[in-house]
Amino acid sequence: VTILGIESSCDETSASICRNGEILSNFIANQKVHEQYGGVVPELASRAHLQNIVPVIDIALQQAGVSLSSVDAIAFTQSPGLIGSLLVGSQFAKSLALSLNKPLISVHHMQAHVMANLIGVNKPSFPFLCLTVSGGHTQIVKVISTSEMQVIGETRDDAAGEAFDKSAKLLGLPYPGGPLIDKYAAEGNSKRFQFAEPQIEALDFSFSGIKTSILYFLQKETKKDPDFIKNNLSDICASIQAKIISILLKKLKKAALQTGIRELCLAGGVSANSGLRKSFQELCTNNNWKGYIPAFEYCTDNAAMIAITGYYRYISNEFSDLSVSASARAAWS
Ligand code: ATP
Ligand code: MG
Ligand code: FE
User: Fold this and answer.
1) What is d(CA 319, CA 103) in angstroms, rounded to the nearest whole number?
2) Does a cis peptide bond (omega within 30 degrees of 0) precede residue 80?
3) Is 273 a known ligand-binding residue?
4) Is the peptide bond preceding residue 174 cis, with omega within 30 degrees of 0?
5) Which residues make Cβ contacts (< 8 Å) with residue 136, sequence separation at least 6?
6) Ligand 1 nearest-atom number relative to CA 159
7) What span, in angstroms and rounded, lies between the C-alpha atoms of 211 and 216?
8) For the segment 220-270, what is each residue's pLDDT rounded down to a tens digit?
9) Residue 175 pLDDT more than 90?
10) Which of 7, 158, 200, 269 has the fewest CB atoms within 10 Å, counting from its CB?
């Protein structure tokens, strides 16, 4: 079974070929145009998707050594995301399915982030828990099977990735700041500065308070020393990163203890964070749980996660018809 996966929910145009559960190619075109604006500009994103989509799919096919006619089904991101961006990928996928007379598979982007853990040889077994931490979402997902997932905890306000990016912005770092905080944190002392800990019930998260706590802290310190940020950048980044990681892993641990599930995964762009990866592995080792993290290229937005989801949908006969339409927000299943 050969699946073409297409991802266009935000600012990455990506295409991937999956054959029998193995990823043969995963080509990603990043949109540089947004950097100067400090965030993704929706209108520019859809325009860039329009320019990228044909060459991106061509390259993915070429790199996999697969011709369009040997593709068995087309999987695409149907929701959630920027509507203009989603429309480009979904209309293209639908047209392709119609012209090739091949089945169409619509994929939920957040379920696909979770499914990235099924790429490769070292896979979790069901049921497992997945902490999905991305630019727009923070969720603890109970994964019962490839097509049955429940969100058992999520953020009430900002996502973990937003907490990284907004903190980075306060430090004067360019967008997206998450990877830069990671880089500076590596040389810093994470115990030097303390930030407020949110008090949120159950398995839910909150990240808007920590952003405010960082803002006030920076205002206070730069009043005393205008070069405070410059002189302490590594320690500030390390302290912010440690706080975000601690908030995330406390809830994941609680979820594991509550459910008794001993197979844990990470997913989403923030799972590229080296501090989170390390602390997650430690948490698993200390509790005798099994921990899984997707390879770097499958953490941030990519089409391989759409193609692998498409593959599992294909073998369980879950197809969409051509009337399916893109949606900015959508039900979880
Ligand atoms: P969603 O999937 O919720 O729609 P998204 O697709 O935009 O959002 P991803 O591409 O999965 O999100 O992740 C992007 C986020 O990951 C950004 O907030 C970015 O700063 C963050 N990120 C990427 N690498 C790192 C890192 N090394 N450390 C911290 N954050 C990181
Ligand atoms: Mg992105
Ligand atoms: Fe994403």
Assistant:
1) 7
2) yes
3) yes
4) no
5) 10, 80, 159, 161, 162
6) 3
7) 9
8) 999 999 999 999 999 999 999 999 999 999 999 999 999 999 999 999 999
9) no
10) 200
Any atom of ligand 1 within 6 Å of the Cβ of 171? no
Q: Is 273 in the pocket of ligand 1 (CB under 6 A)?
A: yes
Does position 331 have pLDDT exceeding 80, yes or no?
A: no
**Nearby residues of 60 by Cβ (< 8 Å), 6 or more positions away:** 4, 14, 15, 16, 17, 25, 26, 27, 303
Is-cis flag, bond preceding 294, omega within 30? no
Residues near ion ligand 3 (Cβ under 5 Å): 134, 301
CA of 25 to the centre of ligand 3 (A): 19
CA of 75 to the centre of ligand 1 (A): 22
Q: Which H or E element spans position 78?
A: strand 73-79
Residue 132 has pLDDT above 60, yes or no: yes
- Mean pLDDT over 126-151 rounds to 96
> What pLDDT does 333 receive?
57
Run of H or E residues at 45: helix 42-64
ipTM: 0.97
Q: Three-state DSSP class for 232?
A: helix
Distance 38 CA to ligand 2 centre (A): 12
Is 136 annotated to bind a ligand? Reply is yes
Residue closest via CA to ligand 1's atom 19 equals 178
177 contacts 169 by C-beta, under 8 angstroms: yes
- Is 134 touching ligand 1 by the criterion CB < 6 Å? yes
Separation CA 231–CA 125 (nearest Å): 47
Separation of alpha carbons 123 and 109, rounded Å: 20
CA of 5 to the centre of ligand 3 (A): 14
Residue with tokens 């920027």, as numbered in its chain: 82
